[in-house]
Predict the 3D structure of the following.
Amino acid sequence: MTTLIIARHGNTFNPGDTPTRVGKHTDMPLVEKGEAQGRALGRYLKEHDYLPNVVYSSTLQRTRKMAELALNEVGISLPIYALDIFDEIDYGPDENKPEKEVIERIGEEALTLWNEKAVVPDGWNADPQEITRNWQRFAHQIIKPRDTVTNQVMDISETVLVVTSNGIARFAPHITEDFDGFSQKFSIKLKTGALGILRFSNDKWTVVDWNIVPVLD
């Protein structure tokens, strides 16, 4: 059995800052609260016995730092594999723009469709089919872990942690082959610092829970 934990990175803005739509071309660090969210993620994993065997992040510093803080809190040392398939999407003309300006350009309806159905607004450089295929290939890979020495498939249970961004995480439940069912049950948007849990058992992926917000210290 494979358990896939998908976490969204923590806050990149302080109280009083004007939040902007941070995409793949805006490599911002975590702020103090964001780092606290990283530690909270680690505590959640430890308290619920989701100790990761392998950890992935995007290539952006906010996700790598989130993963590092979580591992430190758990008390285990693992390499963090940074993959660009987990980089946030490119928001095109709305990259790093305040939400008010984004809504003025694309409209409220387009933003609602993005948040509820993962329909990409005009101008954003993101291919839902490609992102979905990336998740599907990744999911297929992790259900067959291999020995690093012999390269033989191992029959073991494994927990995989992926720290990514909101625009990428929402497509992960496509691996269940029932995205409509998922979107009717859950809000597809992961909150900042939140996580979702998927599990592969009996030859299929299911969403165990979504949008879990770990308690801050």
Summary: The helical segments are 32-47, 61-74, 99-106, 108-117, 128-142, 166-169, 179-185.
